[in-house]
Every structure is written in C-alpha cells, then in structure tokens.
C-alpha cells in the first residue's frame, strides 16, 4: 500500500469531550491524585499512544487542524520514561497503544531505522522493563503483518491467533489486561490479492462509495467509521474474547480491555470508531461486572465516556500533536479497591473504584419493580372492588405472615450478593501478594512473549 492513498485518522474536529483534555500544564492533576498519594499502590504501569515518530519535518495533519511534531515525539517519550522511572511509585510495564511510527516513514523508506530510534528511546531509560505494543493503522502502513509478527512489536503469543496479534496477561491477582487486534479484519498490512483484503474492501464499498476509501465525505453519524484507516474484529477474535472474559469472570478477575480503535461512539469522533464496535460493545456489556475499562488511542483528540453498564471508555490523546511544553501520557496505579489513572498534560486523571452505590441503586431498582408489579397486579385490582385495607390484610394473613419475612430474607440475600460483588472489585492482594517493583521481579509468565 502506498502512503499517497492514506488519509490520516486525525480528522476529528470536535470530539465530544475534548475540553476534558485541554489541560495545558504537563503537571499531574494533583487535586485528584492527592487523595491516594500516601497509600502505596499494589503496582503501577504506564500508558502512551499515537507517538507517530518519524525523522521528518513537522507538518499539518490531513485536515490542517493540528501540527504533527514528528521529531518532538521522541523527546516526549523520553520525558514520559523519565517521569515513570523517577516517579514516587515506579512502574512495572508500559502499554503502547499503537501508531508508534508515522506512515510517512514508509514514504521515506525509513520504517526500520525510525522504529529502532523510538524503541531505543524507551529502552535507554526503562532498560528491560516490558513495553507491550498493540498495532495501529500506521504500523500497517509501514510493515506487513508477517513483518510485524516477526519483529519487536510482537508482544503476545500469536501461535493460535496469527496473523492477528491479540493476547492477555495478568497484571496482579484479580486484574487482567486483554489486548485486542482492531485491524484483524482490514485492508491494511495484507496483500491486495488476500481474502481479508477483498472482504474488507467489499464491506467498505458497500457503505462508502467515495473515490478514495479513506474519504468520509457524504457519510453521516456512525456511518463515518467506514473508511480504510479503520478496521474490525473477526468472529474468531470475538469468540476468543468471550472465552477470556468468561474465564476471568469465573476467576473473579477484573479486566481492562485495550485496542487501538475506540469502540464507544461517545468516547471518540465517529470517524475513528471500530467497524463492528457494536458487536464488541454488546459482548463487553454481558460481562459488565468483569470489564472495568476499554482504553484506546487512534482519535488524536482523545475522549472519555462512562457507559450505561458502568464501563469506562478512555481514548488517550496523541503524543505527536502535543503543543510545545505539553505531553500526553498516563500512569495507572492499581490499589486494593480502585484504579487511579493519573494523566499528565493533555490527559485528565480518572478513578475507577468500587461500585458499591451502583449495585445498591440496582438493588433498589429491582425492589421498586417488585413493589410496582404487586401494586398493579394485586393491590389495585383488589382495591377497585371497593374492599378496605383491613379486609385485604385479614384475607391475606398467610401471605402477610409468610410474605414479609420472605421479602426481608430475599432483600438481605440480594443485598449481600451485591455487596459481595462490589467487594470483588478489590484486587486480591492477600492470597498471593506480588510486589512488582523492578523488571527482574516480574515473573516470566507476565512478560511479553517476544519483545
Ligand atoms: Zn494515530
Ligand atoms: Zn490510528
């Protein structure tokens, strides 16, 4: 694929939550972080995305809204690594959410050397600390899937998923990361004669008849996602995700799902949505008490939305479009009963905590439904016959005598169950406490497969 056909994915003009990320100061949002700063987290890890490094002069993005400072990206990564290294709580690993180098490297024929420069930027400060990479569209502009699978950006065991690149690992007892390949079904990084290319182009052409498949002109709302710089997930990966979530649920684990492309329309510009976002979202909603968050990149302006199933959707703003003196990375601190995502620069700070009140409200709703049903189906028909409350009580003594204790018992059981589930948010540090502080402390099974 030639880069002349590439329309950039940074055409988001007015994301719904851009103002949340407008903090011009690179300092940590102290007001939110202070609350927990005296309590040591179980462990911490770094988040960074859309670095787009290239040894190339700065230039405007496709829609001329943001300047891409390609070389400055390396400085910002360096700054992030030093921040993580010297932070109060050292990190255990970094999640790099894709678009590590820019598509322009392919035009310049510097893909390999530019990739080495930016990887070295991580390595020189963090040494052997694991950096888990997931693939964005710009990885696929520079390399084929086979090249990526055999290169330093392959972070998971792909024996069964190849040529897709997805995987999972345990962060600490009761907390797991699941990394998705959001370009498994796409026309990028594969030969024009391949089956997946043909099927992807067929889907694109069905929804987007513009001359360039990267041009969203004429598309409205969610339909704008049908552009070539996006992709989707096949049923094979969906089934794998379902298996992983079922196992996690059975083990009482909580899960953070990561992918390059966002999956919730309220957490990004619709132009940057996964093709089959609804299918993935529906699956995550089945496991709403297991999945805590979905974290993505791709939309360079970022976004945030807490959905109706209480899953946090965080789209991180891009490094490459940071204004001077600003950065864009985050540190996730894992506490016993919450996650604190401490943003720097363009990223705000978020807390994902024990949802006791959420479950309590759910229980009250259920109770309310039972009461309403009783009133409508039993009480109102009875009263409409002109009988008194006393009369009702007398004729229903067995119900009252047996029903009230049963209702109380029922409510206690439900409440206990909900409180137990709420408590299950606590990441289990008692059974098997892992004090991961230095790279050498990380058990082999938690390290990337081949990074
Ligand atoms: Zn990007
Ligand atoms: Zn992207």
TrEMBL record:
InterPro entries: Calcineurin-like_PHP, Metallo-depent_PP-like. Keywords: Membrane, Transmembrane, Transmembrane helix. This is Calcineurin-like phosphoesterase domain-containing protein. GO terms for molecular function: 2',3'-cyclic-nucleotide 2'-phosphodiesterase activity; ADP-ribose diphosphatase activity; CDP-glycerol diphosphatase activity; manganese ion binding. Residues 1-17 have a biased composition (Polar residues). Residues 45-301 form the Calcineurin-like phosphoesterase domain. Pfam families: Metallophos. It comes from Rotaria magnacalcarata. Residues 1-25 are annotated as: Disordered. The chain crosses the membrane at residues 397-415.
